[in-house]
Amino acid sequence: MQKKLLNIGFGNTVVAERVVAIVSPSSSPMKRLKDEAREKQLLVDATQGRRTRAVIIMDSNHVVLSAIQFETIAQRFEDLNAEKS
Length: 85
Prior knowledge:
This protein has helices at residues 28-39, 70-84; strands at 5-9, 12-15, 19-23, 43-45, 54-58, 63-66. By secondary structure, the chain is of the alpha+beta class. The strands form two sheets. The protein has a four-stranded mixed beta sheet with strand order 3-5-6-4, with helices on both faces. Strands 1-2 form a two-stranded antiparallel sheet. The longest helix has 15 residues, at 70-84.
């Protein structure tokens, strides 16, 4: 079975089936979530030094940071899911 990869920008991908949520990083709960993930060593920074524009929460409790707008990643995610149907 082939896994669908979600492009999260700048050559970085995640397995689409493992994505739980794609959210904006600006809210206080997301800042807290990032800090907790960093403490537990579950934070993956895929921004390559750019500003964080999306937070991707994985089913493994990993938190992935992306420099691509969360709306763009969410649209890519929806497009991948539409291909499965």
